[in-house]
Amino acid sequence: MSERLRLAAVERRYRTEAGELPVLRGADLSLHAGEIVALVAPSGTGKSTLLHLAGLLEKPDGGEVFIDGRPAGTLGDEARSALRGRSIGFVYQFHHLLPEFTAEENVVLPQMALGTAEKAAAQRARELLAGFGLEGREQHRPGRLSGGEQQRVAIARALANRPGLLLADEPTGNLDVATSDRVFAQLLEAVRGAGVAALIATHNPDLAARMDRVVTLRDGRLAAA
Fold this sequence. Notes:
Helix content: 25-40%
Family: Belongs to the ABC transporter superfamily.
Number of helices: 7
GO molecular function, one term: ATP binding
Structural class: alpha/beta
Shape: globular
Distance between the termini: 23 Å
Protein name: ABC transporter
GO biological process, one term: protein localization to outer membrane
CATH class: Alpha Beta
GO cellular component, one term: plasma membrane
């Protein structure tokens, strides 16, 4: 299996009024194609920071982030942005859909940003949305969709450009238990079907148990849970 993500001794520190605050102290992780890993740790321990570094949204203060075997964490902003658009999909607790666009348009736009023709992007969007049970809802704006439907659109959007790596930060944390279970099952099915590597942060031990393995943050380092 090809390695989609590797964190090598990654460090991240923040400057505060009280001084420097170390959050990650040499975190190591390897994630391969088709592997789904749960990231479980209490709030405030650095889960979101780790996901931001893995997703090239922040630069590490030490160590390196490798995407598909290539060092990427310390690239310039433009190069990191381009690589992120091609290779990484994101799903957050709150969907962050564009409210003025339809469900289909929300899935089309990131494809067109990478140069996909509008017709092909729309076809891909409809296929993804249908796979998430949203056939017939494609032309609805987010305000006319339920919370579960909005999050399924967000997952479809994250997969639209066929990324090799998916990062998710509490992707069903804003949903009720029954809806969370359904949406999470569809997320796992879609990720496994596409052979994507996924790192999914969750507080829910039942959801974590459905993934291939579980890691947790302890004192700024990653360890098997």
